[in-house]
């Protein structure tokens, strides 16, 4: 639409009437103007803060903001042509509509200001434009620059920790015990296995060492042998703990994993799956453990997160304590946390292993806190945008998405190189919290710019 700027006039209309001249008889009236020329093709009303796209179409700015928020596309609502940059208000067209349709424009602006949904959309649209127009130099300043520095520092620390961990030979020793058949264990390896049961075994390591108990002799030991000399384990709780662990060894044929690194070495694919699944969908993953890995993983997880005072002595093995059926109080506490704060369960589990995995447990706890904040922000957006009714549909879609990804992982896992799996594992374990910190900062600073 072209306008004649002579004498500060607005232009010449299609019906031949001119306005903006010095003649008193040429005073404009809205009745002689075609409103179709000044109407928005979204709401079909007079344009308010008209915004012109690169394709040439004009829309009310709030209509364009609502379209952008609902479609998540940078394209014209009418011709679907993508716009370049960030659309600006057409000042000339705005001044013309303000002069020609002042009453209508004032009424519509009052309605827009009174509508909180439109106000949020306009604010989110403007925030999007501010972020889009920010230069690359500014993007690396402030919080972004700080977190990039933190990421670099933590990456160096993580690499140093992993290099030390691998160089110390600890992982090789763990892998040897969890992969070597029990019948081939040496006396030194039997003592090492006994030592891993807990500090209370210090009283009995010397007799095992003096008797040169190897793997074959270990498998023949029973309650009577442990009670009598030379082992002399008179404490009944201690004997039960040793026999319980010995039963696990007989069942598995190797040493059962007793920490994160041993579990990863024994179940590489399962460890990687659980690490990513607990981050993406903790409720479905815990439910999966309940259905398919109840004794080995779910029960120890529940007893660690929701402990209860039991009749079993504290000196007994961790495994023996974790095989007790949970009480109704434990189930009640667990289900509340499972439904409301599932990431808190993960944090509590990591906290219990703080003495074994000092830095790794801290990374997991921080990541669980960040994921809880992100989940809370997502639910808050659904509530404030009046889309909470779509939550069941989103949950159903999420369920099928996780199910398909689980099947894809199960099919592709045998073909993925071990080096790639290790890289993915350590990335999710140590570097994912840094990414989540940046996401939380964006949510808290600009919550209205995030897609619901």
From TrEMBL:
Domain SAM intervals? 185-252
Q: How is this protein annotated for GO cellular component?
A: endoplasmic reticulum membrane; nucleus
The cross-references to CDD domains, in alphabetical order and at most eight, read:
RING-HC_BAR, SAM_BAR
Q: What residue stretches are annotated with the RING-type domain? A: 40-80
Entry keyword annotation includes Iron-sulfur: no
Q: Name one Pfam family in it.
A: SAM_1
Where is the secretion signal located? none
Q: How does it sit in the membrane?
A: Multi-pass membrane protein
| Molecular function terms, GO-annotated | ubiquitin protein ligase activity; zinc ion binding
Enzyme Commission number(s): 2.3.2.27
**GO annotation (BP), single:** apoptotic process
Listed under catalytic activity are:
S-ubiquitinyl-[E2 ubiquitin-conjugating enzyme]-L-cysteine + [acceptor protein]-L-lysine = [E2 ubiquitin-conjugating enzyme]-L-cysteine + N(6)-ubiquitinyl-[acceptor protein]-L-lysine
Q: Gene3D superfamilies given for it?
A: Transcription Factor, Ets-1, Zinc/RING finger domain, C3HC4 (zinc finger)
- Where this protein primarily resides, as one coarse class? endoplasmic reticulum
User: Which top class of enzyme applies to this chain?
Assistant: transferase
| Transmembrane regions listed in the UniProt entry | 144-167, 363-383, 403-429
Keywords carried by this UniProt record = Apoptosis, Endoplasmic reticulum, Glycoprotein, Membrane, Metal-binding, Transferase, Transmembrane, Transmembrane helix, Ubl conjugation, Zinc, Zinc-finger
Q: Where in the cell is it found?
A: Endoplasmic reticulum membrane
Keyword field contains Transferase: yes
Tell me the superkingdom of the source. Answer: Eukaryota
Q: What does this protein do?
A: Membrane-bound E3 ubiquitin ligase that plays a role in several processes including apoptosis regulation or reticulum endoplasmic stress. Has anti-apoptotic activity, both for apoptosis triggered via death-receptors and via mitochondrial factors. Contributes to the dynamic control of IRE1/ERN1 signaling during ER stress by inducing BAX inhibitor 1/TMBIM6 proteasomal degradation. Promotes the activation of TGF-beta signaling by mediating the 'Lys-63'-linked ubiquitination of TGFBR1 which is critical to activate the pathway.
The record's subunit annotation is: Interacts with CASP8, BCL2 and BCL2L1 through SAM domain and also with HIP1, IFT57, ESRRBL1 and BCAP31. Interacts with NGFR; this interaction inhibits NF-kappa-B and JNK-related signaling pathways.
Protein name in UniProt: Bifunctional apoptosis regulator
């Amino acid at each position: 639409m072209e306008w004649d700027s002579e004498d500060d006039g607005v232009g010449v209309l299609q019906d031949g009437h001119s306005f903006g001249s010095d003649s008193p008889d040429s005073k404009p009236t809205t009745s002689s103007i075609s409103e179709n020329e000044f109407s928005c093709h979204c709401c079909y009303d007079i344009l308010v803060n008209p915004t012109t796209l690169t394709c040439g179409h004009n829309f009310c700015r709030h209509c364009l903001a609502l379209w952008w928020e609902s479609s998540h596309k940078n394209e014209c609502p009418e011709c679907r042509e993508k716009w370049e940059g960030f659309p600006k208000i057409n000042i000339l067209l705005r001044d013309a509509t303000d002069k020609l349709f002042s009453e209508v424009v004032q009424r519509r602006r009052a309605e827009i200001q009174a509508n909180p949904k439109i106000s949020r959309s306009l604010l989110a649209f403007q925030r999007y434009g501010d972020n889009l127009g920010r230069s690359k130099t500014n993007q690396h300043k402030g919080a972004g620059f700080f977190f990039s520095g933190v990421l670099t520092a933590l990456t160096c620390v993580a690499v140093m920790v992993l290099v030390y961990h691998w160089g110390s030979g600890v992982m090789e020793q763990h892998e040897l015990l969890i992969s070597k058949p029990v019948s081939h264990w040496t006396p030194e390896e039997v003592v090492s296995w006994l030592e891993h049961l807990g500090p209370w075994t210090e009283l009995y390591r010397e007799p095992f060492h003096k008797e040169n108990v190897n793997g074959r002799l270990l498998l023949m030991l029973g309650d009577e042998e442990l009670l009598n000399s030379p082992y002399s384990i008179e404490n009944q709780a201690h004997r039960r703990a040793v026999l319980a662990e010995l039963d696990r060894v007989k069942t598995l044929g190797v040493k059962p994993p007793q920490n994160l690194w041993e579990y990863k070495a024994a179940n590489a694919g399962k460890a990687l799956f659980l690490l990513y699944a607990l981050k993406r969908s903790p409720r479905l993953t815990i439910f999966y453990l309940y259905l398919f890995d109840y004794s080995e993983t779910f029960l120890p997880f529940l007893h660690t997160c929701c402990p209860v005072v039991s009749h079993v002595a504290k000196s007994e093995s961790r495994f023996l304590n974790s095989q007790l059926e949970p009480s109704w109080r434990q189930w009640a506490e667990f289900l509340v946390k499972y439904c409301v704060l599932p990431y808190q369960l993960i944090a509590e589990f990591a906290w219990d292993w703080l003495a074994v995995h000092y830095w790794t447990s801290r990374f997991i706890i921080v990541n669980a806190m960040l994921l809880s904040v992100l989940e809370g922000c997502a639910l808050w957006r659904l509530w404030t945008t009046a889309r909470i009714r779509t939550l069941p549909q989103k949950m159903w879609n999420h369920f099928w998405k996780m199910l398909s990804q689980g099947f894809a992982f199960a099919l592709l896992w045998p073909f993925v190189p071990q080096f790639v799996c290790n890289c993915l594992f350590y990335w999710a374990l140590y570097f994912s919290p840094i990414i989540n910190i940046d996401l939380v900062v964006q949510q808290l600073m600009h919550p209205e710019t995030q897609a619901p």
